[in-house]
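Below is a concrete protein record.
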Amino acid sequence: MNKGYGKFFKKLFILLVVMFVVDRVVGSIIEHYFEDEPMGDSAAFAHAINDPEEDVLIYGSSRAVHTYDPRIFTDSLGLSCFNCGRNASNVIYHSAILPAAINGTHKPKAIILDLTPKEIAWRSGPFGADALAGMILPYVLTNEHFAKLALDLFPKEYYKAQVSKLYAYNSLILSIVRNHSRTKNDNVNGYQPLHGSKVAPTPDNVTSLTRDSVDQYSKEQLEFFVKSVTEKNIPLFVIISPMYAQPFADNEALIQSKAILAKYGVKLWDYGTDPRYVQKPLFYDFNHMNVKGAEMFSREIASRIKASGVGK
């Protein structure tokens, strides 16, 4: 009997060793291709966290990624510009990468934060938590700041990523393959244009924007973002970009977001349901402007920033 147990545990040990080695080898291969992605979110993130030395930096979710064209800001302001936005992200992510831009030797001349009406309620749903975990986990082994963030937000996922190197990349494998196989890079300094329109002839009356409660951690991170930028005396422009929606009442998340901005003396430029922009030819889908709308909106924002005294 004892001999049988001994053989069992020996085989189990060998199996665990093999699994560990395979995990580390395959995980390292995926890590290499992840860090070397020529385009896509990860490539933009690598720049945003390693060397964001442009004069104008833009932060936000996919609404920022597809709405603000850095070329227009550079042309209007005479300043370099990079779009640090990230698909499926919220202010927790923006606050995590902000220190790389404001704590170095180069000081940005302006920072833009694209704020969604649900910005500080976004993590309250399970999808939000899963999306954030997928962004953060690849960096827990190499970045102390992201390791702490993951430990605070997703302790179970954090420990899984510590045990399995492959686990940290399991939600990114398809995007890694796609970005390495594409031949055309549609990412322009972090901006990704969308073409065409998939929206209905008239905007919907969206009620879902008013239902979510405030996520306390997201609220704290919004205040961290605003406080960190204003304390450095960097001009901060917080904007609600247009949505293809009928006018709606402020939800609790937006009410509290406005209170944070007012505390630090930051004005909110609210274009959420501006009738000049809520037009079918300017939108790809409900949340995202197409290339025509992005060009029109970027020019207006660049003009207003220039009028505030930033740029040439």
About this structure: Residues 115 and 240 are 5 Å apart (CA to CA). The chain has a mean pLDDT of 86. The longest strand covers residues 110-114. The chain is about 50% helix and 5% strand.
